[in-house]
């Protein structure tokens, strides 16, 4: 990666847009839903920008009166005049006056940060970037993601946010993960997507009142397939995202472990079956990741007195 993806905090901060035409209006549309103060500096202003100013959603200032104070506490400054010469001059001016993060429209070499394509389900936000190399591809991916996420998903996330404190007080870390997986994968999400917000809240609160059952360990015996990340089975990836511990023998392709949940523990063992059974016996949810298809479930796992799931991988050379 040549650019590290992250989200800029905007609360109590300012977003500055230098330019008053259509490009500046486009940037205003991009950031208008944030809670930042939006200041647009230009000589003449697009009608859309004037309308936004009349509504109190942006503040317009004369570009001839730009001072260093304009960039104090600015989360980001956009330079968007539509003129390459003016953009270059304003970029130099903004940096000289202390603007920490500057984005110049269609000038990646002058950008401290790149603008992604955005799927907005506030507070759920998906940002898609191509490091400025293929914006059309970024928009195509955005369209695909838009169809994956129901329009009301942000409201469900907001409900979850209101309940996080109560969940954190009542449930252990393991139980919390299980609870939120159930919320976002089961009847709560289905009810909310169908427009039944009250029913979704009732289901969530009732499940929380029930409390978790005793933590039971399990082993998912997952075949890694030919060793390529994009040839892992979907179920195998899901189990790796749910696991507390990933156990494997030496020599496994390291890229496969990138599919696991970030805070899952990793254990390399010369006897991975014994290690997996031991950890599961103590209540851990374990993925035993093996090279190849893993078509046969080993005898110790077949005979184990705990939950064992067999998730075969794609056979090497398949197709």
Automatic annotation (TrEMBL):
It comes from the Bacteria. It is an enzyme of class 1 (oxidoreductase). It catalyses: precorrin-2 + NAD(+) = sirohydrochlorin + NADH + 2 H(+). The keyword Lyase applies. Residues 152-208 form the Sirohaem synthase dimerisation domain. GO terms for biological process: methylation. One of its GO terms (molecular function) is sirohydrochlorin ferrochelatase activity. Pathway: Porphyrin-containing compound metabolism; siroheme biosynthesis; sirohydrochlorin from precorrin-2: step 1/1. Keywords: Lyase, Methyltransferase, NAD, Oxidoreductase, Porphyrin biosynthesis, Transferase. Residues 219-292 form the Tetrapyrrole methylase domain. Its EC number is 1.3.1.76. The keyword Metal-binding does not apply. This is precorrin-2 dehydrogenase.
């Amino acid at each position: 990666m040549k650019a590290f993806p992250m989200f800029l905090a905007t609360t109590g901060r300012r977003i500055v847009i230098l330019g008053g035409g259509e490009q500046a209006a486009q940037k205003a549309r991009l950031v208008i839903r944030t809670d930042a103060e939006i200041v647009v500096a230009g000589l003449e202003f697009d009608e859309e920008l004037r309308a936004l100013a009349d509504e109190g959603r942006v503040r317009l200032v004369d570009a001839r009166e730009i001072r260093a104070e304009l960039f104090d506490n600015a989360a980001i400054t956009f330079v968007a005049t539509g003129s390459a010469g003016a953009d270059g001059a304003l970029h130099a001016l903004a940096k000289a006056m202390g603007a920490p993060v500057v984005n110049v429209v269609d000038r990646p070499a002058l950008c401290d940060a790149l603008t992604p394509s955005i799927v907005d389900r506030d507070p759920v936000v998906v940002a898609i970037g191509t490091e400025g190399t293929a914006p059309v591809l970024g928009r195509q991916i955005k369209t695909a993601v838009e169809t994956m996420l129901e329009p009301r998903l942000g409201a469900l996330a907001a409900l979850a946010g209101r309940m996080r404190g109560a969940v954190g007080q009542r449930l252990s870390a393991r139980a919390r993960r299980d609870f939120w997986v159930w919320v976002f994968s089961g009847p709560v999400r289905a009810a909310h997507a169908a427009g039944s917000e009250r029913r979704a809240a009732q289901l969530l609160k009732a499940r929380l009142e029930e409390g978790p059952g005793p933590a039971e360990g399990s082993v998912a015996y997952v075949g890694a397939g030919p060793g390529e990340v994009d040839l892992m089975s979907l179920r195998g990836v899901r189990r790796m995202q749910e696991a507390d511990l990933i156990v494997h023998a030496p020599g496994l392709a390291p890229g496969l472990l990138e599919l696991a949940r970030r805070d899952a523990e990793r254990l390399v063992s010369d006897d991975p079956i014994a290690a997996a059974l031991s950890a599961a016996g103590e209540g851990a949810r374990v993925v035993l990741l093996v090279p190849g298809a893993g078509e046969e479930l080993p005898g110790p796992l077949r005979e184990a007195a705990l939950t064992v799931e067999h998730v075969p991988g794609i056979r090497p050379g398949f197709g």
